[in-house]
Each structure stands twice: as structure tokens, then as C-alpha cells.
Amino acid sequence: MKPLQIGDKLAKLPLIQGGMGVGVSLSRLAGAVARAGGIGIISTAQIGFREADFQKDTKAANLRAMVAELKKARDIAADADGKCQGLIGYNIMVATKDYADYVKTAAHAGADVIISGAGLPVDLPEYVTGTDTKIAPIVSSEKAARIILKMWDRRYKRTADFVVIEGAHAGGHLGFSRDQLENLETLDYDHEIREIIACKALYEEKYGTKIPVIVAGGIFDRADIDHMTELGADGVQIASRFVATEECDASDAYKNAYINAKKKDIQIIQSPVGMPGRALRNEFIKELEIARKPITKCYNCLEKCEPRSVPYCITKALIDAVRGDVENGLVFCGENVDRIQKMTTVHELMQELCYGIGS
Length: 359
What we know:
By secondary structure, the protein is α/β, with parallel strands linked by helices. It has helices at residues 27-35, 58-77, 99-109, 124-127, 142-156, 178-181, 189-207, 222-231, 240-243, 252-259, 283-288, 314-322, 346-355; strands at 4-6, 9-11, 15-17, 39-43, 87-91, 113-116, 134-139, 163-166, 172-173, 213-216, 235-238, 266-270, 276-280.
């Protein structure tokens, strides 16, 4: 596999570990992926949930934890000579309240990359001005890619450093309608990927630069990676498979929920973010089908969340799950979670995916 060049930054392997919140992909996982030569991504979603003042001042706890987790990830990623063959960055949801402050904190902390979705990151370039952080929008359609790239061109006289295309088989929040997600066999997503690649080529020509395309969503093994390469992708992003690794920051109970998952356990739900999402069916989801869960504490995590009307608090649900209460919390997952059969390590997984060793 060829290295992934993003501007003046280089990762030995063209594989991004997808950002997973709350607390699933923090410094341990991202650092291990970068040490192996990939791009490790820390999720900023309520990243400070373990800080002492999280309940009192959630935003301050989160911003402080962002800086600390990046530093820890860099320490983990460094080899004996203090060098790193990969890159480290953040996934920041556009739907995050005070989104600009999170992006600015990430960039000024020295993040190699920022990947941003769960909405259109139309103002992302403004928030990284004066830094060397590379930025990528997450898009699920040619229309979304066209809107973002056109707006960045017009407003900021620049283009994306890379683009992440997230398909309908991904976990977490999804840029598709419920009907599309429940009828996956009708989607010709290979065509959409080619259309997005053609769209970004216009801006490559205008700015005289290479804009790598990374494809995400349902990518499980080397055969999937090879298929995306054939379509014209420069790399892939994989999230779910990294949950069942020793280095993943989630609890063992959370990891085992993935390992024990069956196809029948996967369900499309509605998130307070305003988007559908893919998660494991458990007692939490079953109870939501009967009644909403009243919110007693608001963490001000989402820009457009209305605590009096949303079905549940996504912060509490995700924190409960990552700490180990996988029946009464929200466990996001990818479409292929049922194919994960055992615990492994980041090194072993990267060897399998990138070199076919042990597969």
C-alpha cells in the first residue's frame, strides 16, 4: 500500500481510524494507530467526560481534555527515536455547540488533521487559519461535496486538504435518509464515489494540488480496501474494527458487545443530533420505543438540541455505554459489526488490513 500524502504531511499507511465518541477513540487508540503508520483520530465528542469538573463546566473540561489527549497520543505514537510514522488528529462534529472553539483548540494544539461531519463544515477553513492543520469534510453525496468545495473556494480561496466519503454502511450518525438505510441494496454507492472523485478533481486542477479521497463505511477487510482503490480512492477510513482491539479506549464490556453482536442486533435509530444513526439494539433502545427518557441534566453538547423534546440525552447514553453499561446506554456500530469475532491488537489489525498478514 502506498503512503498517504496530505499536503506536506505523510502517513506511512493510507488508513484512517475513524473517530468514535464518547470516549471510544481517545489517546490510547489514536496513538497506537499512528505508531503503526496510520492516521489515528481522537473524537472530541464530550471528550472531557472523565474530568472532575465535567458536570459543572462541560466545555472547559472538554477543551482541556482535547489538548491532554493529543499530547498523550503523541507520546504513545513515538518510537524509540521519538519519531512517528503516522499522523494524529480529531473528528469534530459540526453539530457540536461552540463548534468554532473546538476546531480552534484542536488546530492550536497542533493536530495534524481535522475531519468534520454531522453537518456541513462550511466555515471550517476560517477556524484553522494560521495553523498547519489539514482539514477534510465528511460527505456522503456528490451534492454535499460540491456545496462544500464551492463554498470554501468562494469564501476562503482554498480547497480541502482531503475528503472523507462516508457510505451508508458506517456506524454512528449517517448522512442518509432512513429509507435509504433500510434499503441498502438499492444504493449504487460506487457510482456516487466516482462522482465525488470527479467533483474534487475540478478543484485539484484549479489549485494545482492533490486532494486525496478517503472512503469510509462498511470497509471490513483487504478485499474492501482493494475495491475502493480500484474506484479511485487514495485510502480508507475504518472505525468499528478498531473497537475490538486491546488499545481501544472503551471498556471491555463495550468491546465485548461488538464481539458478541449478531446481524439481528443492528438497528437504525434517530439521534438528537437530528440524523439517523446505526446502533446495537439493547434495553435502552427497546425502552425508547415505548417512551422518551426525560432529561434531567443538559450538557449543552449539541447546537440544535432541545432537551424538552428530544427522546433522550445522547451524552448520558454514550457515556453510560462506554463505561460498560451496554444495555442501558447507546452503542453505535457499523453495519458489519457482526463479522467481528475476536479481540486483537492495533498492530495485528493493521498488519491484516494493510499487508494481508494473519487474515
